[in-house]
Amino acid sequence: MASVRTDIVSRSSSVDVREIDKQAKNPWRWEWLEKQDEGIYLREIIGKLNKLGACYCIVCSKELACGSRGFVALTDSVK
Predict the structure, then answer these.
(1) What's the superkingdom here (predicted)?
(2) Is 45 exposed, middle or buried (0-12, 13-18, 19+ CB in 10 A)?
């Protein structure tokens, strides 16, 4: 059984993702999750982690480095 990640940040949480990613080349943008790729809304499979330049793919259970490539890193995980 997979463990539940406790370090996934939601849009409504009190954590400021701008502060987390302030040193990233491509800081996190919540708008990325509102886009579709391959007919899938990214909000259904991606979550922002509470660390610099990182997010989590629920489908493949992997951390993704999105701090340098930004949105492209998210869409690459869908493929």
Answers:
(1) Eukaryota
(2) middle
